[in-house]
Each structure stands twice: as structure tokens, then as C-alpha cells.
């Protein structure tokens, strides 16, 4: 018999992030013919065609209180939808918001949680989730022993729904808050300007390390990134040296990314950095030290000075990227 799966959409600035479509793809595989529900919280939401994305039911909570992520309010709203839908599995993105919200919901409802999945096998009655362990050096298979349970999905790893468009039932949910709920309100989020492309959802990342040598040195990386439509990332070495903001840091204590193409410039390839990027589909390393460990994980290696190599790449890509 099919299952009911609830996806909690990942929304930023009123728009859905790609990982929501990836979660809807997973949800359809888990549902095995059952119903896929999606809960969307935000303010002045720009809703896509959820039928094409694989949802059967959409639960919309469009309220000024949801304009910024406020843990207590989001938690209450999501629990309200879970109680109405009674799903067997609830999917959250393994994003900044999802990592905070999923365990809070799971704890309140006494549910188990499987975190940061990168794949799922659905050919048996009970799905088997695949997740990285030991900072990405190995993968483990996890099975839930009771339902319902909560799962967080790593962005950029799973395919969106590609089946026939569905007819969607849309439900509007009005959540009421009492004084205790409103004891904390996030009034404004002041974001640092860290580039136009979201690092965790970027298809291409140009990343710089201590070899970039200065804040100004990063300009050659930004030029290449602009031509490629890429995001700029960094090693902790570069962030610690003050060359760029910590929001760009990739690695064990930074962001985990899985782009189609990762270009590492002047990064040695410490294990803590690899933990954040080694699952990238294609890795290109530019380093003047032929013994640098980054070359062990790179698909393509360029031994050379990044200040000579990167501008040449930018010039060549300019010729082919219209
Ligand atoms: P370096 O190791 O100094 O490497 C610089 C590289 O640039 C060298 O290989 C050099 O050959 C090359 N180079 C120099 N000049 C040029 C040039 N002109 N052209 C080409 N190449 C050049 N690190 C992270 O990145 N992310 C993390 O999340 C993270 N978390 C950590 C957590 C813990 C608990 C600890 C202990 C460490 C963590 N680190 C992390 C730090 C990590 O161990 C390394 O120190 C760091 O990744 C090194 O950064 P780097 O590669 O930029 O610098």
C-alpha cells in the first residue's frame, strides 16, 4: 500500500530552493503510489506549479510571521500540518533552516530522525537511506525501525520528480499564535553580500585557499565565477587569513557542497576541506605544488601559479560562454 509523505519546502526570500524539487522526487519514490504532500511556509510566497513538481496536496501557510525563519513559529506550524496529514515520513532539506527545524519537530513529536541523506533505495518494503559518515570518507545505510520518522535531504544529490504532472489539492492553513509562541520574533535578517549564487545549490563553484594570498587576490576567482555563472567558495585557511568572509567556507566546519564542477585554486586539500567538497561530480585543482593532497581527489589537475592559470581559463571560457 502506498504511503503518505510530507515534504517541508525549503523557502528563501519567498521563493522555493531547488532542494524542494529534489525532496519531491524522493517523496514520490518513498510514497510508492501513495500521496505526496508539501507544506510551504513564508510570506508573499511565489508558488511554482507543484503538480508538475510531483505534489498531490499543498499546505500553504502564507503569513507575515513566516517572513523570516523563527524556530518556535515554524515548529508549531509544521507540527500542525503533520497532525492533519499523518504522514509516515517527513522530509526536510539539510539546509541551515532544515537542520534547525527537523530535530526540533522530531523531538516534540518523539520521532526518530535520519540526517543528511544523499540517496535512498526503495526496492524493498522498508526504504534504505544512504548517508555519508566520517566527514564523507564512507557511506552508511540506515533503515528506520518505526514510523513516522523525519529525514533531512542533502541538496544537489537527488533527482527531482520526472513523472506525469499531478492534479494538486491546495489547502490554506491559518496558524494562530499565543503570547508564549510570540516571545521571540525575528524582525529582520541582515545578510552579508557574499555573491549572487547560493553556494549550497551552485552547479559550479570556484574556490580559493591560502594560495590566493589576499582579499584582492580573490578578484581573479570572481572574474572566472562570473563567466561560468558560478559561486565563489573558500577554504578555512583563506577565511582565517581574512581574505574572505566565513560565509564562503567549505568543509567540515563550513558548508557541504556537491556541485557538478568544483575548481579549487590554491587549496592544499586538507581532510577537513575535502569533507565539504569531495562528493563534487568533477573536481579541478590548480596548485603550484605537484605534491599537494588536493590532486589525489581531483579529476583534473593543473600544476601552476593560479594567478597565471585562472585568468587564462577566464579568457578561454569567455570565448565559448555566450
Ligand atoms: P594551505 O594548506 O596553506 O594551502 C595553500 C595551498 O596553496 C598550498 O597547497 C600551496 O601549494 C598553494 N599555493 C600557494 N600559492 C599558490 C599559487 N600562486 N598558485 C597555486 N597554488 C598556490 N579547512 C577548510 O577548508 N574547511 C573546514 O571546514 C575546516 N575545518 C576544520 C576543522 C578543524 C577542527 C580543524 C583542526 C581544521 C579545519 N580546517 C578546515 C583547516 C584545515 O585543516 C586546513 O588548515 C585548511 O583547509 C588549509 O587551507 P588552505 O588549503 O587554503 O591552505
TrEMBL record:
<comment type="similarity">
    <text>Belongs to the ETF alpha-subunit/FixB family.</text>
</comment>
<dbReference type="InterPro" id="IPR018206">
    <property type="entry name" value="ETF_asu_C_CS"/>
</dbReference>
<dbReference type="InterPro" id="IPR014730">
    <property type="entry name" value="ETF_a/b_N"/>
</dbReference>
<feature type="binding site">
    <location>
        <begin position="249"/>
        <end position="253"/>
    </location>
    <ligand>
        <name>FAD</name>
    </ligand>
</feature>
<dbReference type="InterPro" id="IPR014731">
    <property type="entry name" value="ETF_asu_C"/>
</dbReference>
<dbReference type="Pfam" id="PF00766">
    <property type="entry name" value="ETF_alpha"/>
</dbReference>
<dbReference type="InterPro" id="IPR033947">
    <property type="entry name" value="ETF_alpha_N"/>
</dbReference>
<dbReference type="GO" id="GO:0050660">
    <property type="term" value="F:flavin adenine dinucleotide binding"/>
</dbReference>
<feature type="binding site">
    <location>
        <begin position="266"/>
        <end position="273"/>
    </location>
    <ligand>
        <name>FAD</name>
    </ligand>
</feature>
<dbReference type="InterPro" id="IPR029035">
    <property type="entry name" value="DHS-like_NAD/FAD-binding_dom"/>
</dbReference>
<feature type="binding site">
    <location>
        <position position="210"/>
    </location>
    <ligand>
        <name>FAD</name>
    </ligand>
</feature>
<protein>
    <submittedName>
        <fullName>Electron transfer flavoprotein subunit alpha/FixB family protein</fullName>
    </submittedName>
</protein>
<feature type="binding site">
    <location>
        <begin position="235"/>
        <end position="236"/>
    </location>
    <ligand>
        <name>FAD</name>
    </ligand>
</feature>
<keyword id="KW-0285">Flavoprotein</keyword>
<keyword id="KW-0274">FAD</keyword>
<dbReference type="InterPro" id="IPR001308">
    <property type="entry name" value="ETF_a/FixB"/>
</dbReference>
<keyword id="KW-0813">Transport</keyword>
<feature type="binding site">
    <location>
        <position position="287"/>
    </location>
    <ligand>
        <name>FAD</name>
    </ligand>
</feature>
<dbReference type="GO" id="GO:0033539">
    <property type="term" value="P:fatty acid beta-oxidation using acyl-CoA dehydrogenase"/>
</dbReference>
<dbReference type="Pfam" id="PF01012">
    <property type="entry name" value="ETF"/>
</dbReference>
<keyword id="KW-0249">Electron transport</keyword>
<dbReference type="InterPro" id="IPR014729">
    <property type="entry name" value="Rossmann-like_a/b/a_fold"/>
</dbReference>
<dbReference type="GO" id="GO:0009055">
    <property type="term" value="F:electron transfer activity"/>
</dbReference>
Amino acid at each position: 500500500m502506498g504511503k503518505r509523505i510530507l515534504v517541508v519546502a525549503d523557502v528563501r526570500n519567498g521563493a522555493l530552493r531547488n532542494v524542494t524539487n529534489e525532496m519531491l522526487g524522493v517523496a514520490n519514490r518513498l510514497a510508492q503510489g501513495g500521496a505526496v504532500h508539501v507544506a510551504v511556509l513564508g510570506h508573499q510566497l511565489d508558488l511554482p506549479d507543484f503538480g508538475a513538481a510531483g505534489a498531490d496536496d499543498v499546505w500553504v501557510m502564507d503569513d507575515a510571521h513566516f517572513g523570516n525563519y523563527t524556530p518556535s513559529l515554524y515548529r508549531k506550524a509544521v507540527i500542525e500540518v503533520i497532525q492533519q496529514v499523518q504522514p509516515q515520513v517527513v522530509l526536510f532539506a539539510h539546509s541551515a533552516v532544515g537542520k534547525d527545524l527537523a530535530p526540533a519537530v522530531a523531538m516534540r513529536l518523539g520521532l526518530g530522525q535520519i540526517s543528511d541523506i544523499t540517496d535512498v533505495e526503495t526496492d524493498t518494503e522498508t526504504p534504505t537511506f544512504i548517508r555519508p559518515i566520517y566527514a564523507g570518507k564512507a557511506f552508511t545505510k540506515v533503515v528506520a525501525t518505526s514510523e513516522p520518522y523525519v529525514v533531512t535531504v542533502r541538496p544537489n544529490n537527488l533527482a527531482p520528480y520526472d513523472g506525469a504532472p499531478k492534479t494538486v489539492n491546495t489547502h490554506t492553513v491559518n496558524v494562530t499564535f499565543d503570547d508564549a509562541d510570540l516571545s521571540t520574533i525575528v524582525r529582520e535578517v541582515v545578510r552579508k553580500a557574499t555573491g549572487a549564487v547560493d553556494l549550497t545549490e551552485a552547479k559550479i563553484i570556484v574556490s580559493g585557499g591560502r594560495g590566493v594570498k589576499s582579499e584582492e587576490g580573490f578578484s581573479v576567482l570572481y572574474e572566472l565565477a562570473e563567466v561560468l555563472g558560478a559561486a565563489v567558495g573558500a577554504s578555512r585557511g583563506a577565511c582565517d587569513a581574512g581574505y574572505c568572509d566565513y560565509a564562503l567556507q567549505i568543509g567540515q566546519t563550513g558548508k557541504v557542497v556537491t556541485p557538478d564542477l568544483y575548481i579549487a585554486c590554491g587549496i592544499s586539500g586538507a581532510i577537513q576541506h575535502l569533507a565539504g567538497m569531495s562528493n563534487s561530480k568533477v573536481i579541478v585543482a590548480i596548485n603550484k605544488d605537484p605534491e599537494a593532497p588536493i590532486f589525489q581527489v581531483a579529476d583534473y589537475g593543473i600544476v601552476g601559479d593560479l594567478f597565471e592559470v585562472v585568468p587564462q581559463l577566464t579568457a578561454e571560457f569567455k570565448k565559448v560562454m555566450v
